[in-house]
Amino acid sequence: MKLLLAPDKFKGSLTAAEVAAHLAAGFRRALAGVEIDELPVADGGEGTVQAALAAGFTPVALTATGPLGEPVDTRYAVRGRTAVIEMAAVTGLEMVDPDDSTARRATSRGLGELVAHALDHGATTVVIGVGGSASTDGGAGMLAALGARLAGPDGRLADGGGALRTVRTVDLGSLHPALATAELVLASDVDNPLLGPRGAAAVYGPQKGADPSAVADLEAGLAAWVDALERAGAGRARELADAPGAGAAGGVGYACLLLGATRRPGVDVVLDLTGFDGRLAGVDLVVTGEGSLDEQSLAGKTPMGVAEAAATHAVPTVAVCGRSTLTREQAADAGIEAVHALTDIEPDVSRCIADAGELLEQLAGRVAAQRFAPQHETVDT
């Protein structure tokens, strides 16, 4: 019997690696002689670098600019000439106490510093996971860190989406030279455009603390940013503002597309980086999961990506989670044969969060009993 454990994090409780470890402990107690492969994964947001490290990448530590301009200790992952960068680890929303002020001031500059560092050290492929961002600056801070020169009416332009309303000129002539040949991969499931009612400010601004006035100012700033780039002769600046994914990460998606990035679903990128397909050989069951399984999960979150990839090799998938609002039919349509939630064994959500590890081990035993008995000898738990 061989199991492949490929969960995402349980946000607020456990990292993906911790989820996998607790599941493994529970399955080993429940199934005599079971072979287990632990493969923590992510969807391009928080945990992407950790997933790469668990798959054999090497960490690169450095200090970069945080979401509000403060120095933060962060890291990215590298293997050969491929670098994996996680926006949430340097300019993430969880690094701030969001309100209308932080929504206006937050910058993507630190992300650009990580990309520049990776390019300086020989990376020719840079994967940029953009989930969990704090900023709505259209990627202006990222481009500034990569050599772009932005100016306002008095020659200086502060960082942050709020300041973009006053951008007058953009000079892209001094962008990092390695960008001309590097392959950039935008790991994102977001298909929103940059502007308008489905744009970065309108849809995601409130999640980042923006009140209605701040949303309007951020929208105006993003529009001014597009105008300035178009005046600067940036190729397809107007067209790319309407492209799917331009609104990802407060418009960082737009800046990445301007640099020639290819947009791919985050979980697909992570599964490729971790060698998921190659680890399916001989596997009887894949176990995936995340903290909450709901309708948002159906739009390309980790469990659905894992199930889809496993199905191409005819390997069944079950999911574990803290709670689930999916119907059995919705899960089945996504390729998940069964969903097992912590709330199935502990209805108190606060305890599910506090004792997630212990409950996951119990849940693994339940999955083993339901899935494999009596075909396989089980151990009394």
Automatic annotation (TrEMBL):
By what name is this protein known?
Glycerate kinase
Q: Name the species this protein comes from.
A: Georgenia daeguensis
Q: Which PANTHER family match?
A: GLYCERATE KINASE
The Gene Ontology terms for molecular function here are:
kinase activity
**Kinase: present as a keyword of the record?**
yes
Q: Which residues form a coiled coil?
A: none
This protein's UniProt keywords: Kinase, Transferase
Q: Check the record and name the Pfam families matching this protein.
A: Gly_kinase
Q: Which family does it belong to?
A: Belongs to the glycerate kinase type-1 family.
